[in-house]
Amino acid sequence: MSRVKTKNKNEVASYGEAKIDNWFWENKWKCVYEPQIVIEDEEFLPDWILWPQHGIDKPVIIEFWGLCREDGNVAQWVIKKRERYLFRKATKEAAYTSCPNYYYIGIYPHQLDSLDTWLEEELTKLINTNSKAEV
Length: 135
Known about the structure:
Layout: E1 4-5, E2 11-12, H1 15-26, E3 31-33, E4 37-39, E5 42-44, E6 48-50, E7 60-64, H2 76-98, E8 103-107, H3 115-130
Parallel strand pairs: 7-8
Antiparallel strand pairs: 1-2, 3-6, 4-5, 6-7
């Protein structure tokens, strides 16, 4: 599989992931790409973990669901992998949302066009409603 190099010197799996990784770099969010984490004795490999920062009190798991395209222009290999991919997505999201040690944000391909505002809004929601930021 070919990888795409980002401004943060990460080698990511797609141009969509590169856009997200570059956004983190440009907006000064410290993160780790594809870290191994354990939730209830099961190992997971999320796309990113954002460390607590900017008023967020615990790590944020970020997943890019790149194969969840809404348009009809989908490659045959994506169609073949979709059932297993969607099962794994459901498994990961259930673990992420039930774990009190992390926040979770899922990003879909259609959100890449407005990534600057959309991701900023999602992170601001965590800062304003879920964090223990000092007032």
